[in-house]
Each structure stands twice: as C-alpha cells, then as structure tokens.
Design a protein that fits this description.
Length: about 120
C-alpha cells in the first residue's frame, strides 16, 4: 500500500487482494490517514484484484469516520471492485470515480450532499 500526500489530500493506493487477512492493514492505513485530518482522502482501488465483505466494511467504516470533516473518494475501475460495490449497493453510498485525477480534482461535496449520502 502506498500513501501520497498532495496538499490537504491523502491518496492511499491499494494493491492486491482486500480480504479477511489484508483488510486490517487497509483499516490501519485509513485510520492513520484520517488521523492527519486531510480535507480529502482518496482510496485508489485500481490495482485491487479481489474485494470481499471485510474490505467493504473497511470502506464503510472509513466513510463513517471521515464524517463531515474529510471528503472520502474511491477510485474503482475493475470488475473485481465494482461487482461487490454494486451487489451490496454501496456504489450508491460512496463517491466513486473512474480515475485518480478525477477523484483528486472533483469539487468537494456540499454539506447537504454529505448529509444525503450519509443518510442512504
């Protein structure tokens, strides 16, 4: 897992499988990134080959922990990531981009959008 700081944005690049054994590593990386108080946290899942319920729970926990203070964005481009997000309908609750530059450059959500996203 690689971590990159771009101003007030932190990018976590996840590589490989995210499952019961590796999800705790992702969880610790997300927690550490959020402890720094970034304005935006981007979790790049482009290199993820497998994502199961343990990984999905880490992403949901990240959204809850980020709250109103940090704008959480995901980058998902592969079937291995999209399929579990769609099956669980999490793609409706998380902000997902097709590329890392898009996730970094996207305008921040408004407070109303954050409330709507968090309430679904």
């Amino acid at each position: 897992m690689a971590v990159e700081h771009l101003g007030r944005t932190v990018v976590l690049v996840v590589d490989g499988d995210v499952d019961l054994y590796t999800a705790p590593v992702l969880h610790r990386a997300v927690e550490s990134a959020l402890d720094a108080g970034p304005r935006r946290l981007v979790v790049d899942l482009t290199l993820v080959r497998f994502l199961n319920s343990a990984g999905l729970e880490v992403l949901l926990a990240a959204r809850r922990r980020a709250g109103q203070d940090t704008d959480l964005r995901l980058v998902a481009t592969t079937r291995a990531v999209w399929r579990p997000l769609q099956l669980t309908r999490l793609h409706e609750q998380l902000i997902i981009h097709a590329s890392l530059p898009a996730a970094i450059a996207a305008p921040s959500r408004t407070r109303d959008e954050a409330t709507t996203i968090g309430s679904t």
